[in-house]
Design brief:
The chain has six helices and two strands, in the order ααββαααα. By secondary structure, it is mainly α. The protein has a two-stranded antiparallel ribbon with strand order 1-2. Strand 1 and strand 2 (52-55) form a beta hairpin.
Length: 145
């Protein structure tokens, strides 16, 4: 059976202002990847909204690091690493159906149950589950262990 998701590198998930919340771990990883201090990363490439630090978006809505693909792929934040295995898409089949128009990497033939199974396994394996609603992206906060 084919995978429920396989990235097509289309960049659709890199567009959409306000979605790239960075935890301390994310900021450290990305700053290291860019060869700058965490403070410089925050000053040059982020903004704080509702107490959460997020990457800036360009005027066209794309992430500041998007350039015909992710320009910081090895250092990208956990929220980017987790797409499309977000909480809403895992718990709500209708959300999963809606992302199929947006994300060509989602295999609708595999079905939602397979997507959930692969997603939970991927989130666990990659250590992407978040716990702290004050700093973490809501899409990564789950009840799963």
């Amino acid at each position: 059976m084919s995978k429920a998701f396989e990235c097509q590198m289309c960049g659709h998930c890199c567009q959409g202002e306000g979605g790239i919340i960075m935890t301390a771990k994310d900021r450290n990883r990305l700053a290291d990847h860019l060869g700058i201090s965490e403070q410089e990363l925050i000053e040059k490439h982020s903004e704080t909204v509702n107490g959460k630090i997020r990457l800036q978006s360009r005027e066209d809505g794309f992430c500041v690091f998007f350039n015909e693909g992710c320009g910081v792929h090895p250092g990208r934040p956990d929220i980017c690493r987790a797409w499309p295995f977000f909480r809403g898409n895992l718990i709500d089949e209708m959300s999963w159906e809606m992302i199929q128009d947006y994300c060509p990497g989602v295999n609708k033939e595999a079905g939602h149950a397979k997507f959930v199974e692969e997603g939970k396994e991927y989130i666990r394996a990659e250590g992407l589950r978040q716990h702290d609603p004050d700093v973490a992206p809501n899409a990564l906060i789950t009840d799963e262990d």
